[in-house]
């Protein structure tokens, strides 16, 4: 089969499986090692077949590898993890150490499907020779750690009816927009032009409060509950009233673009800012004399300045860019600003925008005071400015941010009776949950099986047209997004590509071939090397079933802004099935239609981020599914965090659980009938080997795979301290993980030139200087990222958390993520 010499030993040896094989070839050391491995396997198989119980050893002696730039020494074999249960310290075997062997001469059973799959999983790792470099080719199904969790008896079934939604519009006849104080004109516009019949619970609470008085407010509600309109509606309503008053008093015709800037909305990402501006634009169609615009960077400042000069009433901005304009754009007069909204306030804080926000607030205060002194305020304009903070998740940072910009803020939350729930018992005021109707599950997948399991999972999800229209897969870093995009994009080149598709689907009929040909013709990029950053979407050969095409997309902060925008727009408009591979740039606030599945392939760095990620589905009362991939061992402890997402946990609603075996069977054995019980292993192995060969075939791809692996490990080291017991880098089996990046080399020897530093960013200056806000001079004065310290956290814990945040910040810069959040 393979030119890499991998032998898949599917048939039972004639001498019987319990007879010891003979060892030939290689050096005496290799023969001895192989003999020992086979003897060990032989003993275990005998014990199992004779019913003898083998007590698993819980620890393995770790072999340490020093992965450059990772900081702490990381062990290639994790501590305290049961990798096969009875294995002595494993010395990685390297194919280059062997002399060339024929398939017949290869003895250690790498992948040995037998009647007892447990036995096959205990079989030894296998090495093979390759022309040239040293390679480790391990079997996918051997030495995998065993899971520590069991499916719960009362788990929510996939096909079960969803629970009552908690973020849907209200259904009572009494709950109308007009009953909240919204004018008939605006309410009619909402109904007729935006198809919004009734407010959601948070809109009901926020609109009535913000129309009633000018107190600062903190709006907190689940993801997808309509918070954007919850703050936009009262602002637009108040401005429409102001305009009507001016007309009545004959002060002026009405409010127009030169009347002044009345409201500023700040958001942490450009994508979110654009989305808010779009909702606002739709709203303002019924008040065309009000003008809104965005200043978010990513385009020439000159054109932003020109728009500001023309006059605007509402501004949507990212903090860095706004601070910059406040300093350098004279035309920007903020003396009339009476509403300041900080959307995703906790994120703004977390990414170190505190200084910019302080600068902005200070500037607004000064200009407002100066204007008052000049007694030239517009009649009817509120005396004081209202600051509104909006987020689905609340942390200490947000409260700190509140202290600098919010005074005696009213905490606005949905009335529990409106969302069919009892009042939530608050623990330190920090309770936030996933939407009730969201079906959550977790997949326990060993590191080696991650890549094939992801492909299988997505194949299964998109198998039936209409079952999943759109999915988002969250990946920790941009390099890894690119690597997985290249694979899903079907960029496996010619024969290999065909083999991978066949491996994952079985042989094709001529009709199938035709449909695949049609798919191929859609491919817009070169087949030879990793796709260029200019390609962000393409038909996915590997995911597309015979009946329809699945398009794969990628999105991360290292892409040029114009491309980020066009990619999202394309994904949004695409009416056919599509999957978006994205970093956390897509986790906050984005309202992408028809997303019915979120996959957290890499768990989020913190629970709050996880809630925002899964909140991209199950929005505004619609159904949705979310699945998180966890590795066997300590990561499975994260299920407790998943349980804490649910208000209904006490009602016995549990989180569904899937195993890699199940995922592979469902995704790869598409005929529905397995030829034998181990067919899925064969298919998974073929798929994995094809991808490995594809990666090996080009130095550029290999480098991309290495880069992805290293960035992934770096990212892994940046989980918040509070969750590091689940995501413990010392427990990470780097060798096994490397396989999920199609690598056949030791992590310790890996050299990755040119790790991503934010390529594709328009602003190439260092993050420090970019921190000045675009046209900055000198070094940044940005403060260190502040922490989400729980009350009573001790000094040691605080230090740990600080370190984690710093590491995360450093990683973000390294991985080009800083630009995702416009840290400059
Ligand atoms: N009253 C309503 N009736 C029906 N749909 C609504 C209503 N209000 C908002 N929506 C829709 O709900 C979806 C989510 O709204 P929005 O993006 O404002 O949620 P959010 O609470 O800000 O979410 P996140 O926390 O993820 O940012 C949007 O598609 C929006 O059009």
Automatic annotation (TrEMBL):
Question: What Pfam families does UniProt report for this protein, alphabetically?
Answer: CTE_SPB4, DEAD, Helicase_C
Cite a single GO BP annotation: rRNA processing
Q: Please provide one cellular component term from the Gene Ontology annotations of this protein.
A: nucleolus
Polar residues bias: where?
Answer: 57-66, 113-150
> Which UniProt key words apply to this protein?
ATP-binding, Helicase, Hydrolase, Nucleotide-binding, Nucleus, Ribosome biogenesis, RNA-binding, rRNA processing
TM spans, by residue?
none
* Catalytic activity, EC: 3.6.4.13
Query: Record's SMART domains?
Result: DEXDc, DUF4217, HELICc
Give positions of region: Disordered.
52-172, 498-532, 749-785
- Which intervals hold domain Helicase C-terminal? 511-682
Domain (Helicase ATP-binding): give its ranges: 208-412
Which cell locations does it reside in? Nucleus, Nucleolus
Please give one Gene Ontology molecular function term for this protein.
Answer: RNA helicase activity
Query: What is catalysed by this protein?
Result: ATP + H2O = ADP + phosphate + H(+)
What CDD domains has UniProt attached to this entry? DEADc_DDX31, SF2_C_DEAD
Query: Which InterPro entries does this UniProt record tie to the protein?
Result: DEAD/DEAH_box_helicase_dom, Helicase_ATP-bd, Helicase_C-like, P-loop_NTPase, SPB4-like_CTE
The UniProt entry's sequence similarity note says: Belongs to the DEAD box helicase family.
What's this protein's function? RNA helicase.
Q: What is known of its domains?
A: The Q motif is unique to and characteristic of the DEAD box family of RNA helicases and controls ATP binding and hydrolysis.
Protein name per its UniProtKB record: ATP-dependent RNA helicase
């Amino acid at each position: 089969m393979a030119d890499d010499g991998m032998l898949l030993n599917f048939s039972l040896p004639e001498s019987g499986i319990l007879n010891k094989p003979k060892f030939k070839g290689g050096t005496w050391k290799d023969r001895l090692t192989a003999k020992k491995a086979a003897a060990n396997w032989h003993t275990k198989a005998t014990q199992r077949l004779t019913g003898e119980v083998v007590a698993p050893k819980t620890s393995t002696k770790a072999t340490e590898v020093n992965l450059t730039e990772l900081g702490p020494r990381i062990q290639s074999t994790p501590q305290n993890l049961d990798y096969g249960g009875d294995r002595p310290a494993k010395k990685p075997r390297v194919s280059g150490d062997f002399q060339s062997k024929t398939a017949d001469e290869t003895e250690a059973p790498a992948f040995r499907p037998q009647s007892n799959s447990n036995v096959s999983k205990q079989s030894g790792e296998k090495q093979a020779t390759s022309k040239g470099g040293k390679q480790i080719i391990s079997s996918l199904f051997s030495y995998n750690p065993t899971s520590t969790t069991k499916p719960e008896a009362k788990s929510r079934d996939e096909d079960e009816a969803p629970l009552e939604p908690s973020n849907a519009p209200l259904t009572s006849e009494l709950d109308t927009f007009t009953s909240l104080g919204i004018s008939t004109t605006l309410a009619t516009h909402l109904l007729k032009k935006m198809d919004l019949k009734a407010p959601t619970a948070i809109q009901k609470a926020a609109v009535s409060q913000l129309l009633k008085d000018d107190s600062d407010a903190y709006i907190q509600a689940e993801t997808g509950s309509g918070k954007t309109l919850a703050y936009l509606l009262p602002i637009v309503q108040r401005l429409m009233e102001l305009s009507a008053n001016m007309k009545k008093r004959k002060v002026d015709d009405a409010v127009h673009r030169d009347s002044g800037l009345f409201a500023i909305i700040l958001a942490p990402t450009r994508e979110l800012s654009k989305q808010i501006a779009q909702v606002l634009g739709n709203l303002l169609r019924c008040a065309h004399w009000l003008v809104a615009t965005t200043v978010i960077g990513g385009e020439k400042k000159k054109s932003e300045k020109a728009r500001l000069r023309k006059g605007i009433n509402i501004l949507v901005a990212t903090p860095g860019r706004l601070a910059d304009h406040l300093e350098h754009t004279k035309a920007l007069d903020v003396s009339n600003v009476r509403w300041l909204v900080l959307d995703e306030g906790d994120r703004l804080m977390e990414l170190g925008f505190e200084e910019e926000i302080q600068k902005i607030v200070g500037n607004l205060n000064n200009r407002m005071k100066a204007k008052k002194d000049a007694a030239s305020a517009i009649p009817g304009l509120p005396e004081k400015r209202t600051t509104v903070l909006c987020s689905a998740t609340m942390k200490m940072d947000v409260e700190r941010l509140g202290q600098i910009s919010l005074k005696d803020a009213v905490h606005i939350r949905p009335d529990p009776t409106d969302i069919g729930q009892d009042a939530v018992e608050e623990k330190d005021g920090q309770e936030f949950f996933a939407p009730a109707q969201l079906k959550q599950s977790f997949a326990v997948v060993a590191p080696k099986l991650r890549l094939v399991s992801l492909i299988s999972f997505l194949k299964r999800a998109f198998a039936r047209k209409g079952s999943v229209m759109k999915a988002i897969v969250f990946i920790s870093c941009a390099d890894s997004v690119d690597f997985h995009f290249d694979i899903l994009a079907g960029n496996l080149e010619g024969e290999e590509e065909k083999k991978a598709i066949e491996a994952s689907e079985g042989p094709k009929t001529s009709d199938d071939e035709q449909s695949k040909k049609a798919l191929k013709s859609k491919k817009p990029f070169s087949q030879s090397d990793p796709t260029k950053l200019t390609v962000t979407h393409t038909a996915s050969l590997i995911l597309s079933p015979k009946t329809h095409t699945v398009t794969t997309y990628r999105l991360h902060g290292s892409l040029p802004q114009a491309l980020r925008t066009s990619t999202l727009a394309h994904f949004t408009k695409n009416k056919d099935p599509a999957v978006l591979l994205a970093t956390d740039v897509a986790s906050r606030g984005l309202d992408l239609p028809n997303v019915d599945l979120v996959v957290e392939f890499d768990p989020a760095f913190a629970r709050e981020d996880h809630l925002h990620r899964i909140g991209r589905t199950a929005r505004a009362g619609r159904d949705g599914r979310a699945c998180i991939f966890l590795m066997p061992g300590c990561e499975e402890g994260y299920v407790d965090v998943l349980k804490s997402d649910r208000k209904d946990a006490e009602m016995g609603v549990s989180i569904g659980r899937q195993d890699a075996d199940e995922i592979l069977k469902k995704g790869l054995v598409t005929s529905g009938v397995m030829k034998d019980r181990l067919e899925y292993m064969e298919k998974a192995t073929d798929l994995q080997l094809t991808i490995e060969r594809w990666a090996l075939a080009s130095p550029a791809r290999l480098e991309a795979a290495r880069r992805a692996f290293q960035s992934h490990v770096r990212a892994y080291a940046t989980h918040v301290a509070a969750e590091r017991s689940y995501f413990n880098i010392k427990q990470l089996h780097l060798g096994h993980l490397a396989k999920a990046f199609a690598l056949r080399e030791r992590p310790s020897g890996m050299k990755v030139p040119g790790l991503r530093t934010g390529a594709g960013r328009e602003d190439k200056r260092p993050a420090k200087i970019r921190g000045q806000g675009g046209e900055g001079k000198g070094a940044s004065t940005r403060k260190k990222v502040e922490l989400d310290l729980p009350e009573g956290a001790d000094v040691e814990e605080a230090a740990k958390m600080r370190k984690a945040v710093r590491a995360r910040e450093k990683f973000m810069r390294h991985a080009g993520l800083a630009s995702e959040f416009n840290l400059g």
